[in-house]
Amino acid sequence: MVRIVIWNTGRFMTTAIFDALDYFEKLKAADVPDEQARVQANALRDFSALQEVKFRDELATKSDIQDVPLEMKSMELRLLKWLMGIGIAIFSSIFTALAKGFRWFGL
Questions:
Q1: CA 11 distance to own-chain centroid
Q2: Whole-angstrom distance, CA of residue 81 vs CA of residue 88
Q3: Is the Cβ–Cβ distance between 5 and 55 less than 8 Å?
Q4: Phi-psi bin for 34: left (phi > 0), alpha (psi -120 to 50), beta?
Q5: Which residues in the chain come in under a pLDDT of 50?
Q6: Burial classification of residue 66, based on how many CB atoms lie within 10 Å of its CB (0-12 exposed, 13-18 middle, 19 or more buried)
Q7: Which pTM does this prediction carry?
Q8: Could you give the C-alpha distances from 97 to 3, 5, 94, 103, in angstroms and in order?
Q9: For residues 16 and 51, is the Cβ–Cβ distance under 8 A?
Q10: Cβ proximity of 18 and 2 under 8 Å
Q11: What pLDDT, on the 0 to 100 scale, is given for residue 2?
Q12: Residue 107 pLDDT
């Protein structure tokens, strides 16, 4: 039996079990030749196992999740620096335009 991991859009992940022997027997009952039924069951079992490995590789580990707050704090600081720089540039541009327009400081 192979457990198939199915992603759910909610908070939880569900799993399904694939029974290759049961699938093989159902194919035989439907008059599928033994060799063809065996090949199909094995191929589907291998595919299911591959999908499970793929999904397990994509899951976040505890250490991955622990690093997230530090990365977010770093991004917040970079964003704050950019916003401060842009704010200072805008203020300087407006101040310079006003200074020239009203002839402050002899400009």
A1: 14
A2: 11
A3: yes
A4: alpha
A5: none
A6: exposed
A7: 0.43
A8: 68, 62, 5, 10
A9: no
A10: yes
A11: 52
A12: 57
